[in-house]
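TA notes, week 10

Several of you asked for a full example with nothing omitted. So below is the full record: structure tokens for the whole chain, then the designed sequence directly under it. When grading your own attempts, check the secondary structure regions first.
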């Protein structure tokens, strides 16, 4: 493709169009090792909670096909499941729509339509690596939290040695076989490294509990997933 062409790249268009089709199959329903790594972020942000604990109103941004819901350990009254992709949000509705406590809505996590101080907990699993100006997005998520609310985030250790090697041996092979230039797609899709995001999180939020998978050592090069629960003043 001539990069001077002003039309969008067909490879990127194809990825956007087929994302909902491939996501759950590749990352959660296929290879057991990939599924275990993906599940790690979901498990880590729930580690401190029990059924005896309660967040009345919960918002999940970028919820995908609702993969996090089975991992939620605390009680709640309402849980708003949101995603920008209507196709993948329909998958979440199909899997979990029978739970009357859940609601589903198309939302851009960068510009939420909710009023200030609406939720007791905001959950984001594997979103922050994708969004431009993540420091603004973090402020948007805290805007809709009530004072004293909890912001729960999990991200891959993008840019780390362990993560790059793991991708090369697993998902890269899968998507290359399906005709995707996976290196190009990731370069466009994962615009923020773990080190960058960690700097933003640690700058803005002092009261936090951090988790690392699988080693527990607080270094992104030797882990695959970073997760954090933040208490927002």
């Amino acid at each position: 493709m001539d990069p001077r062409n002003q039309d969008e790249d067909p490879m990127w268009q194809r990825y956007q169009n087929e994302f909902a089709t491939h996501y759950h199959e590749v990352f959660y329903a296929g290879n057991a090792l990939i599924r275990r790594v993906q599940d790690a972020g979901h498990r880590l942000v729930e580690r401190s909670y029990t059924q005896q604990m309660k967040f009345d109103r919960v918002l999940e941004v970028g919820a995908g096909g609702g993969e996090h819901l089975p991992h939620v350990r605390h009680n709640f009254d309402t849980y708003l499941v949101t995603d920008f992709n209507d196709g993948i949000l329909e998958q979440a509705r199909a899997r979990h729509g029978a739970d009357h406590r859940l609601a589903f809505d198309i939302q851009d996590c960068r510009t939420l339509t909710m009023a200030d101080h609406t939720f007791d907990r905001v959950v984001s699993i594997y979103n922050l690596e994708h969004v431009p100006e993540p420091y603004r997005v973090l402020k948007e998520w805290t805007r809709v939290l009530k004072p004293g609310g909890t912001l729960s985030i999990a991200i891959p250790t993008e840019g780390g040695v362990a993560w790059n090697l793991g991708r090369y041996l697993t998902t890269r092979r899968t998507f290359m076989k399906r005709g995707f230039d996976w290196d190009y797609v990731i370069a466009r899709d994962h615009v923020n490294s773990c080190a960058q995001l960690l700097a933003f999180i640690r700058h803005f939020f002092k009261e936090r509990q951090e988790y690392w998978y699988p080693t527990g050592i607080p270094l992104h090069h030797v882990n695959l997933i970073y997760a954090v629960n933040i208490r927002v003043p």
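Residues 114 and 144 are 7 Å apart (CA to CA). Use that as a sanity check on your answer.
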